[in-house]
Amino acid sequence: MDEFDYFDMHCHLGFCEDAVQAAQALAAAGVGAFSNTVTPAEFAEQQAVLANAANVRVGAGLHPWWVGEYDVAADWDRLYGLVARNRFIGEVGLGLSPRHSETREAQLDALVCIAHACARTGNKVLSVHAVRAADQVLDVLEGASVFGGMTGNACIVHWFSGTSDQLTRARRAGCYFSVNPHMLELKRGRAYAQAIPDDRLLLETDEPASAGAPWSAARVRELLEETLAQLAALRDDDPAKLRERIAQTSRTLLQQ
């Protein structure tokens, strides 16, 4: 990963028409990536497809929006084992907006299972979805002892959208935060971007947003560069120095 100067720390290459070609295009553009999956089945496919992509780490995921398609109670042992066997976990978490509230209990069950597997086996890098659920996500992760001690786990909150008090709580828990252009469109998001510690700040695109959505490596690089420039201005920082600090944090997290 040392040859890359930008890292997309939350993306979905499985939504690309050709994930291998996408990974190769990112490498040519000087970009490393943490590609998140939304179901265990997608992870199995993407892990095999991208096995030779040195610039990409694939996360084992069960996205809260897809939990309703997965029988957590019946497959608890399988989900636990999936997380236990893999270092990179994502996208996981809770999405408690009204649109997805009907699967609240299944989402919580899945996150509890994932959290206990991470705490028990350790050395995980998680990319976490927390929409209208930051406190609930932190309750589960802290309750399972995912943070601290000798676990070696690192939790990245993707596109943080909670309250300032929840941001403070997540910071104190030791979370990382991946920032994308959408987060910086809002005044609150820009204020949050200023409050994230230097050694916990990451870049992301969350692209492509869905299967078949337009995507190009050149656009990913452009979005990462634009986000970095905005962050440097907001934080009154030197862009080159900030880029290298973020890149070094990303390299450390993406070590196998």
Helices and strands in order, then pairings?
Layout: E1 6-11, H1 19-28, E2 31-36, H2 40-49, E3 56-59, H3 76-85, E4 88-95, H4 104-121, E5 125-131, H5 134-143, E6 154-158, H6 164-173, E7 176-179, H7 187-195, E8 201-203, H8 217-234, H9 239-253
Helix pairs in contact: 1-8, 3-4, 5-6
List keywords for this structure.
TIM Barrel, 256 residues, 43% helix, 3-stranded parallel beta sheet, 8 strands, single chain, alpha/beta
Main sheet, how many strands, which sense, barrel? 5 strands, parallel
Tell me the distance between the termini: 10 Å
Tell me the quaternary state. single chain
| Whole-number tally of structural domains | 1
Name the CATH superfamily classification: Metal-dependent hydrolases
Poorly predicted ranges: none
Look up the CATH topology.
Answer: TIM Barrel
User: CATH class, please?
Assistant: Alpha Beta
* Portion in beta strands: 15-25%
Number of DSSP E strands? 8
- CATH architecture call: Alpha-Beta Barrel
Description:
This protein has a single domain, classed as Alpha-Beta Barrel (TIM Barrel), CATH 3.20.20. β7, α7 and β8 form a beta-alpha-beta unit. α1 crosses α8 and α5 runs parallel beside α6. 43% of the residues lie in helices and 17% in strands. It is of the alpha/beta class and 256 residues long. The strands form two sheets. The protein has a five-stranded parallel β-sheet, sandwiched between helices. The protein is globular and about 50 Å long. The N and C termini lie close together (10 Å).
